[in-house]
Amino acid sequence: MTDTSGLPSPDDQAAVDASTDLVHRVRGTVMPVLEVDLQPGQKVISEGGELSWMTDTIRMTTSTSGAGQSGVMGVLKRAVAGGTIFMTEYNAEGGPGTVDFATKMPGEIRPVAIGPGREYMVSRHGFLAGTQNVKLAIGFQQKLGAGVFSGNGFILQRLSGQGVAWIGLSGELIEYRLQPGETIHVHPGHIGIFDATVSFDIQMVKGIKNMLFGADSIFLVRMTGPGIVWLQTLPLPNLAHALAPFMEREGNQSSPASGGSLLGGLLGN
């Protein structure tokens, strides 16, 4: 198992560049933003609510169709996979334009090339934007029951079609290249994106003590190569759990009579 820890390899980046004639860049570090330049006739799609800012020449078209899905069943499948009911298409009219999509959490934005033999499975909410021929659908796992009850709602998005997709994941991205038959066991919340050639199965942790007293999830994802796996270091449930004690403390200090948490804290001293 090879750990390449981070940025795309030259071969991966060359595949991305060859898959689109769009000029794009990721700006920033901890809270990055994807910036895509569009010429008249070029288009990029995203889920509803992902737009951060755009130039005056960019036009938006929002509908329930898009990303290879249409009709009631197509929309429902996208929603179950963690996507939105509405998709938005951006195109430039009257001249070049730029559209930007910022991350909602500290993390990374990763471009991936999609085409025949290059499909990916992505954690729900991981899809940020894509070129117009990228398809977004639900990715089924072998054990649906374990996926639903694995603590993080382990339902994946499947990226297929032709073009480039940009994936926004939380924390740092750690890359592993699994050889055929090579296996890694991963907490469900750390799954970011991986090649569709990687087989995966959700398994219950063995041992009653591990299940009852362990601090980790009672489910692990068993991933077997060949293929590349990108793991995210900051699962959102972990962040929420870490912040929960402070949120409860703030809630206890806040009241209409005290005029808010800050003033209430001052008056309480």
Brief write-up:
This protein has six helices and 20 strands.
Features:
Double-stranded beta-helix, disordered C terminus, 40% strand, 269 residues, alpha+beta, six-stranded antiparallel beta sheet, globular, 20 strands
Description of the molecule:
The protein has 269 residues and is of the alpha+beta class. 21% of the residues lie in helices and 40% in strands. It has a single domain, classed as Double-stranded beta-helix. It has a seven-stranded antiparallel sheet. Helix 5 packs across helix 6 (261-268). Mean pLDDT is 77; it is low at 3-8, 142-153, 209-215 and 261-269.
**Could you please say which CATH topology applies here?**
Double-stranded beta-helix
Q: For the record, give the distance between the C-alpha atoms at the N and C termini, rounded to a whole number.
A: 56 Å
Strand content: 35-45%
Can you tell me the CATH class? Alpha Beta
Q: Structural class per helix/strand content?
A: alpha+beta
Biggest sheet, spatial arrangement of strands: 1-15-20-17-10-13-12
Largest sheet: 7 strands, antiparallel
Q: CATH superfamily membership, which one?
A: Mitochondrial biogenesis AIM24
- Element order: H for helix, E for strand: EHEEEEEHEEEEEEHEEEEEEHEEHH
Secondary structure: helix percent: 10-25%
Write down the oligomeric state. Answer: single chain
Shape: globular
Q: How many domains would you count in the coordinates?
A: 1
* Unreliable segments of 5+ consecutive residues: 3-8, 142-153, 209-215, 261-269
What's the architecture, going by CATH? 4-Layer Sandwich
